[in-house]
Amino acid sequence: MSILIAKTFAYVPYSKFRVGAALLTEDGEIIKGANIENASYGGTICAERTAFVKAVSEGKRKFVALAVTTDVATPIAPCGMCRQVIREFCSLDMPILLAAFSYLEKEDGVRETTLGEILPFSFGPEDLERDRG
Ligand SMILES: [Zn+2]
């Protein structure tokens, strides 16, 4: 249910497109995030990044799952920038649940994927440790 609650406080005066994210920490805590728009559109922060920024700024860096939902009838995946932020803190096989608006009522309302599936051939923190020519 946290996933539905997460989008409650979305601030979306421009797009009217609410997104909620629920990030499950290794110790079982759920960190919620909502998208926060800005009149200077580039200042907008997605729900997924809101959840990560909240968690990491409170000392939580180990996550085991992420769920994302919107008001759309089909599951929607995180944007490219959020995928890269997820990559910073999560393993490629971490489950990501994409929940449609009415996911509780539809058999195919939740699409389960992984970070590796939605961000193939990715760049991550370990790449900065590689030998340089
Ligand atoms: Zn995003």
TrEMBL record:
Residue sites binding substrate per the record = N35, I36, E37, N38, A39, S40, Y41
UniProt keywords (A-Z) are: Hydrolase, Metal-binding, Zinc
- Does this entry carry the keyword Hydrolase? yes
Obligatory cofactor(s): Zn(2+)
Which residues does the entry assign to the active site, renumbered to this chain? Answer: E48
Q: Where are the transmembrane segments?
A: none
* EC number assigned by the record: 3.5.4.5
Cite a GO CC annotation: cytosol
In terms of Pfam families, this protein maps to: dCMP_cyt_deam_1
The record's GO molecular-function terms, alphabetically, read: cytidine deaminase activity; zinc ion binding
Which residues does the record give as Zn(2+) binding sites? C46, C79, C82
Query: What does the entry give for GO biological process?
Result: nucleobase-containing small molecule metabolic process; pyrimidine-containing compound metabolic process
Primary enzyme class = hydrolase
Q: Which reaction does it catalyse?
A: cytidine + H2O + H(+) = uridine + NH4(+); 2'-deoxycytidine + H2O + H(+) = 2'-deoxyuridine + NH4(+)
Classification via InterPro entries: CMP_dCMP_dom, Cyt/Deoxycyt_deaminase, Cyt_deam_tetra, Cytidine_deaminase-like
Q: Which Gene3D superfamilies match?
A: Cytidine Deaminase, domain 2
Any idea where the CMP/dCMP-type deaminase domain is? 1-126
State the protein's purpose: This enzyme scavenges exogenous and endogenous cytidine and 2'-deoxycytidine for UMP synthesis.
PANTHER family attached here? Answer: CYTIDINE DEAMINASE
Similarity comment = Belongs to the cytidine and deoxycytidylate deaminase family.
Q: State what protein this is by name.
A: Cytidine deaminase
User: What organism is listed for this UniProt entry?
Assistant: Suillus luteus UH-Slu-Lm8-n1
